[in-house]
Input
Amino acid sequence: MTASRPRVAVIGAGPAGAFTASLLRTRCDVEVDIFERLPTPWGLLRYGVAPDHTEIKTLADRFEKETFGRGCRFIGNVEVGTDVSHAELTNHYTAVFYATGAQHDRPLGLLGEERSGSLSAREFVFWYNGHPDYRDLHVDLSGERAVVVGNGNVAADVARILVRDPDELSCTDIAEHALHALRHSAIREVVILGRRGPGQAAFSHAALRELSELAGVELCVDPADLALDAASSRWLAEEASFTARRNVELLRHLADRRPEPGPDRRITLKFLRSPAALNGSDRIESLVVRRNEIGHVEADRLRGWESVGEEETLDCSLILRAVGYRSGPVSGLPFDEERCVLPNDRGRVMQDGATLVGVYAVGWLKRGPKGILGSNKRDAEETVTRFAADLDSGILPIRPTHSSSQLDQWVASRKPTSITVEGWHAIDRYERERGQAGNRPRLKLTSLSDLLATASGVVG
Amino acid sequence: MTHVITDRCVMEGSCVEVCPVDCILPAPHDADFESVEQLYIDPGRCIDCGSCVSACPIGVIRADSDLTAYQAYSIELNAEFYEQRSAE
Output
């Protein structure tokens, strides 16, 4: 047994965990073990980022180099809280970093929103990205219209995937089952509902512009929806972000545009609308939509909205709820039920007002589900800075140093099908090879048994 | 000539660290870092060294002469970001 460096555990191999592990290896003299519930690393980069955003997917190469390439170990297919407990981790590791993200959806609060035909955008995204837990999800594409509730970037992603020419997706790493289903889809229109006005649309400008430029798809917006109330006009002129101003400019341009003949598929943006009720007995048949108005200004932001009683009914067979993610409690740790985060002070986990020594939070679990991929790097820097100070100050308990083979034995006793970095690399190689024939970056394995079998082909 | 950050940027930030003339903003410590959707290169200050191109982990920074029609939109976007920022 070599004596040594403190060993730390990072829980969750998504972007927050990857940035954290990378920084821990460069800034601190520690060994890093990355635990992941799934057999594959990179979390939402693999299963969240849309397949047609191919450049973004290449961030995985950087993660690979900066984590496993720097000696971090991968302990995949092991779920903390189920296969191993937090208490066990604290026995083995000097520090534990939780980066498990936000695995739940914010509900709409409508009766019947779990009915067949109504899915969260997260489920739909996991389905088209080949997440092993969602490959058998029933996605009904037999109707002509789908409605997406919420108008952020996830809404833009799901709308785009629904109407984009499937041929344009065939050179991406989209799951084969999803590509097949989309080729047979009857959907011709996706309606995107935004609770607030065009100035407060949550889309990034890049996401909105991408929708406006899709080949064979018309992006429609009703000019009446763009008439801004006085408060919104003033806000747009004085306070609004660069993105909001650009978005309103583009929306006005779209509203003025004469419809061109040709496109047989369309995305319709509706603003100041909220879903009021779902119709249909055992499956969704239509959605009743209520009109809102911007109600009042709080501080320097437009927030209020209230119904003015006007309703319309949209026939649809599929509703995707894209109103945000939510983190859930981590077994054995405190949880802030109100903010839905692991309570923490700049990354140090807190319990009853005191620091829980040696436990850290990072990413969405730490700050809530907001920001983009790169936000996690800054977030990880904040957490790792606190850890480095704690390590220097000597307050962290130094655990009896186990060798990596002792730890492997412990993990194997808890989860015989755990996956090492060699197992992940076998999956990665196999998926890339399978993709070559179709000129795709990779063709994903989407069942747990295929992932495990491929990984175990080299581990032994 | 200048370099341009196209709109697939995820604000990973390596380009900000390597830029020799600090012409890529906002930096992680800037007040507007959380409210922007991408990083931008100041066309008035870029010296066209290309360091950011190799630093970018996802390859979304290009020379302005090497952009697709879709990406060319970002030339104006990068410039306008600095115009608005300096006006504020």
